[in-house]
Amino acid sequence: MTLHPMLSNVLAQFADVLDYPQPGLAEKARLCAQTLAQMGLTPLEAESAQLSPDALLSAFAREVEPMSFGLLEEAYASTFDLGGAYPYIGYQILGETYKRSVFMLELKNRYRAHGMDEAEELSDHLVCILRYLSVLQDEDELREMTQFAILPSLDKVLRAARMRDENDHSALPLYLAVLQALYEVLTLTVGEALMKAPEWEHSHAKMQEEAFNDMPLAYDTVD
User: Fold this and answer.
1) Is a pLDDT exceeding 70 seen at residue 143?
2) What span, in angstroms and rounded, lies between the C-alpha atoms of 73 and 208?
3) Hey, which residues does 125 pair with through a beta bridge?
4) What is the model's pTM?
5) Do residues 28 and 16 lie in contact, with contact meaning Cβ atoms separated by under 8 Å?
6) Phi, psi at residue 88, to the nearest 5°?
């Protein structure tokens, strides 16, 4: 699958929308929606009742435009800080392990190699990774980061949200709707996630068990 020529542009726009709320958020969302519409992506499921990615961004723009800055901050925090949709890709796929630290350090090195300034956020923040991918010229690396890290993380977050709201059949709220749009766009332009949420849970549990088994005990002796 050849990458869409407008993918880099739309990744940067998604980063602007998913960043901490700033003035002009509605306009940024509308611009992203326009780019998505121009990309002409075919829906994942033709008969699905789910809104298309550009429609989701347009709806997001309409919702946030009349909101005060305080309400925008509250909506952002209720999703990413309090709602469990933590936007840290390393945390979502690796947990609080040393492997996450290695992942974050590698990301920092890659950012520096591409002339990216140090961000205020941790290096595995979704927004930082999207900005990096938007300037990345290596298609293989972009595919690897997307299919092994970003998409599995989004899959995990969105599945958890649907499980919490399984009795509520209304549209996904605000920022989760943007994450859903991003998930569909990446799947359509890059490819399917190479690890789904249930597989991730099994893989994570196995990794934790192996780490525990490899842990030296206090009474172990050294020859």
Assistant:
1) yes
2) 35
3) 88
4) 0.84
5) yes
6) -105, 105
